[in-house]
Amino acid sequence: MELRIDSKPAIDLAKHPVAHGRSKHIETKFHFLRDQGNNGKLEIKHCKTDEQIADLLTKPLKLSSFDFLKKKLGMAEASN
User: Fold this and answer.
1) Which segments of the chain are extended strands (E)?
2) Cβ 36 vs Cβ 42: under 8 Å
3) What pTM was estimated for this model as a whole?
4) Kind and range of the H or E element at 9?
5) pLDDT tens-digit profile of 20-78?
6) Cβ proximity of 30 and 44 under 8 Å
């Protein structure tokens, strides 16, 4: 499975966890991701912010961005 993340610091934490106060609350999540990556079950890749398909479902977007991501997801207009 491929996990596409638009945050390079988040990718770095998932691959090489650093123990410091600011990352304590997310440590478990990144240990899980790192373990899955080491087992070959997950590949963590960087993607550009404007190509992050999950934003279609989680953020308010401009119409042009919404249409672009909708097409990337494979959604089409329903006809009556």
Assistant:
1) 2-5, 43-46
2) yes
3) 0.61
4) helix 8-15
5) 556 666 667 667 877 888 888 988 888 888 888 888 888 898 999 989 988 988 887 77
6) no
